Amino acid sequence: MSDKDEKIAHKAEEFLQIFKKGADFTQDLLKENERLRFRLIELEDVFKNTAEGGHDPDSQQMKLKIAELEREKQEILDRIKQVEDENIDFANRYVDIETENNMLANLYIASYQLHSTLDFREVLQIITEIVINLIGAEEFGIMLLDEKTNKLTAVSCEGLELGAFPSIALGNGIIGKTAKAGDNYFIDDMEGYERDLEHPIVCISLKIKEHVIGVIVLYKLFEQKSRFADVDFELFTLLAGHAATAIFSSKLYSESERKLSTIQGFIDLMTK
After folding, report:
1. Where in the chain does DSSP place strands (E)?
2. What angle do CA 165, 169, 175 make, to 5 degrees?
3. How many CA atoms lie within 13 A of 163 on its CB side?
4. pLDDT digit of tens for each residue in the chain (272 aa)?
5. Which residues pair with 156 in a beta bridge?
6. Secondary structure class of 218 (helix, strand, coil)
7. In what order do the strands lie in the sheet with 202-208?
8. d(Cα 251, Cα 244) in Å, to the nearest integer?
9. What is the architecture of the domain spanning 115-260?
10. What is the DSSP letter of 132?
């Protein structure tokens, strides 16, 4: 297992621990809530019985007792309200953590798929499926850098025509500048955005350490995904690292296979 896989596994384990602690915390809150409700019922019964006994000679003492019980009742009601608010807050955090955990678990599985093949086209297809299913992108492209010409060229896309993509020089425009810097670009506001192949809503650098080999550019998300969540930004970074490694390895393998085939052909020609 590589260092990246170990880090992802460690991250997933951390989320699972948070999930377990959250579940235990929820159980404690539910128990506390039930205890307070039961105590409230007891106080209401005492209050009712005390009020009915108003003819007692010690009525003044009874009034004081009633006032004390009412105060305690209000404190319990306030505490119940606080616990309910905490339950709602925790439920929201639980959903966020569960979503992040599921996303990372899916990416962890996808990373194994990426590294299970050295076929270049198959690697591109797996990356495409990951971007569709995990990121929620409907229109996007994968562009690789030709180090001889220093230009980015589309090698795979979804929802668009491959031939429509322009060849972009490293350092030119949003895509070229993002690739040259090795950064990630996210549009400030997606509302009213109209597709421009040189101006994507997202541009993710594919790099191995500091060496950029290409970019993933996004132009449209599915309707059910109107914005990016915090987990998406982390997901982009993790995906980019695994995708870059898989693409680089598969290209090296393809080139070595071609060279080996050429050498074998030359040897066969010489031995005949």
Report:
1. 137-146, 151-158, 168-169, 184-186, 202-208, 211-221
2. 65
3. 0
4. 556 556 555 655 665 565 566 566 666 666 766 776 777 777 667 666 665 555 555 567 767 777 777 787 788 778 878 877 777 877 777 776 776 666 666 667 777 777 788 888 999 999 998 888 888 889 999 999 998 999 999 999 999 999 999 999 999 999 999 999 999 999 888 888 889 999 999 999 999 988 999 999 999 998 877 677 766 777 788 888 888 888 888 888 777 666 556 665 656 566 66
5. 142
6. strand
7. 168-169, 151-158, 137-146, 211-221, 202-208, 184-186
8. 11
9. 2-Layer Sandwich (3.30)
10. I
Closest CA to 4 of 252, 244, 229, 179: 244
Residue extents of the structural domains in the chain: 3-98, 115-260
Kindly state the helix (H) or strand (E) to which residue 236 belongs, with its residue range: helix 230-271
Collapse the DSSP code of 228 into the 3-class scheme (helix H, G, I; strand E, B; otherwise coil) and give the result: coil
Residue 36's SS3 state is: helix
State how far the Cα of 61 lies from the Cα of 58, in Å rounded to an integer.
Answer: 5
pTM of the model as a whole: 0.60
The β-bridge partners of 54 are none
* DSSP letter, residue 57: T
Burial 94-106 (b: 16+ CB within 10 A, else e): beebeebbebbee
Residue 265 CA to residue 136 CA, distance in Å, equals 46
Q: What is the largest CA-CA distance in the chain?
A: 126
